[in-house]
Design goal:
The protein has about 190 residues and is mostly helical. It has ten helices and no strands. The protein is globular and about 50 Å long.
Length: about 190
């Protein structure tokens, strides 16, 4: 897998967007088989190459691909704040204009990925610029509102997947209480 990641890092620029998405899916599945520092470095390098290639196509990415990309960033431990800022800007547009495309599992996956990234030091609370900071804040407000609106439809798995790091870092007190009440009603731990 290390060799495959290294080759992908070098040749990602040759791939079409569909192939880049497929590469992320495959690497997410292979993550459990990647062990050791050299594998982690190779995975991060491949991830950064893929993210670099996807930035040109950011306006065409839908909710599912943005979610996949956030998950991929978290698993690969990408440390570049700019990638997160760009994805959050796209996520904000999608949350405002395509609300129906965000199912409960998708919302939970986004929250989980953002919580994991926050713990790793790449956070929606930070930004590469002032404009990004404002956009990140609006995105997180919209995401929190949509997540709370979907709580009654969320099952045990989705509530558990949201995760404590996201709840603590990004939800306001009222949102946090609503989520914790739903978790308690379902008898789910975070």
């Amino acid at each position: 897998w290390t060799a495959a990641c290294t080759r992908l890092a070098v040749s990602a620029h040759r791939l079409q967007s569909g192939c880049l998405v497929r590469a992320m899916e495959l690497l997410l599945r292979a993550d459990s088989r990647l062990s050791g520092d050299s594998a982690a470095v190779a995975l991060r390098s491949a991830a950064e190459s893929i993210l670099n290639c996807l930035t040109a196509q950011l306006g065409n990415l839908g909710a599912a691909v943005v979610t996949l990309t956030l998950r991929f960033m978290a698993v690969a431990r990408v440390e570049e704040q700019t990638y997160l800022d760009m994805l959050l800007a796209r996520l904000l547009v999608l949350l405002r204009h395509e609300r129906a495309s965000f199912s409960e599992p998708l919302l939970a996956a986004i929250a989980c990925a953002l919580g994991t990234l926050h713990e790793q030091g790449v956070s929606a609370k930070r930004a590469a610029s002032g404009a990004s900071a404002a956009a990140n804040r609006r995105c997180m407000e919209n995401l929190g509102e949509q997540l709370v609106a979907a709580l009654d439809s969320m099952g045990e798995e989705e509530i558990a997947r949201v995760g404590g790091p996201f709840v603590v870092a990004f939800l306001d007190d009222a949102q946090r209480r609503a989520l914790l009440q739903r978790a308690a009603a379902l008898r789910v731990g975070l």
